[in-house]
Amino acid sequence: MRGLNQRLLALSAFIHDNESIIDVGCDHGLLGIYLCLNRNNINVISSDIKKKPLDMALANTYKYHLEKQIKIKLGDGLSTIEDNTKTVVISGMGGISIVNILKDIEKYPHVQKLVLSPNNDFSYMRGMVNKLGYEIVQEKLIYERKKYYLISEWQKGTKECNSFFGRLNLNDETVRNYYFEKRKQNDKILENLKDITRRKKLMMENCQIEEKFSF
Question: Quick check: 1 pLDDT over 70?
Answer without folding.
Answer: no
